[in-house]
Amino acid sequence: MTTALITGSTAGIGAAFARRLAAQGHNLVLVARDTKRLGEQATELHDRHGIEAEVLAADLSTEEGITSVEKRLGDRTHPVDLLVNNAGFGNKGRYLEVSMADELTMLKVHIEAVLRLTSAATESMRSRGRGGVINVASVAAFLPRGTYGASKAWVVQFTQGAAKDLTGSGVRLMALCPGFVRTEFHQRAGMGTDNIPGWMWLDADKLVSAALADLARGKTVSIPDPRYKALMGVVKLTPRGLLGGVSSRTGRKYGPQ
Questions:
Q1: Where are the beta strands (DSSP E) in the chain?
Q2: Most buried residue among 109, 137, 186, 213 by CB atoms closer than 10 A?
Q3: What is the value of pTM for the model shown?
Q4: CB count, 10 Å around CB of 138?
Q5: Which one of the listed residues 95, 148, 228, 254 is annotated catalytic?
């Protein structure tokens, strides 16, 4: 039986990955900050699907938190076959309205943690000749979105580059780029969502199903919905200056977790 480690597992896309993978018979390592919620989630998934669900409380904005997850990913006696780097958050406000401390915390979680955990996982996976990593980014990666969009653009570029370098190793890497998903993400960030059209909202469970199918097909970037595929096609043809104007009017609201 294979094992999947999911960061940010207790809510949103992370919780949807946990439900789907448990239903498919995968053992899980659930990573989040809230010990109580982790325990409740592990018990529920074990009782419902008969899988083993290990909990690892870790704050990926801290050195201690990242190191503890790195250590688990490097455990060769209990190997992880699939890593889902999902942990993340958004800051309310435009550039210079957000404190430097909050901006740096975002970079710690979205970039440093993703780099270090992906490296710890793929090193072990490469030695076994198999494994996969899904790094959750956002369609904000393709728009001028300040620190959030820039960090997610890094996730996409890094994942594509690492996937190319690991070609032939048996290890697959994919950046997942959803749009608006009905999760706790915007509420936690204090962001309103009243101006977001209903058609732009995605279902987390359907998104995860599409993402896993894309990983199996060997894609390195997944935009798991026809509406957003079409929208990103338009974005590619739109002048960057115009995109910047649209982006600032819609606010800092793109966020998958």
A1: 3-7, 27-32, 53-57, 82-85, 131-136, 171-176, 180-181, 201-202, 221-222
A2: 137
A3: 0.87
A4: 30
A5: 148
The letter for the amino acid at 35 is T
Query: Catalytic: 148?
Result: yes
pLDDT (tens digit, 9 = 90+) per residue, 200-247? 668 999 999 999 999 999 999 999 877 777 777 766 655 455 444 444
Q: Are 19 and 207 in contact (CB under 8 A)?
A: no
Number of Cβ within a 10 Å radius of residue 9: 31
Which residue type does 166 have?
Answer: L
pLDDT, tens digit, for every residue of 144-180? Answer: 779 999 999 999 999 999 999 999 999 999 999 998 8
Q: At what angle do helices 113-128 and 63-73 cross, to 10 degrees?
A: 10
Task: Report the pLDDT value the prediction gives residue 144, as an integer from 0 to 100.
Answer: 79
List phi, psi (to 5°) of 243: -60, -40
Q: Residue 114's closest CA among 61, 72, 76?
A: 61
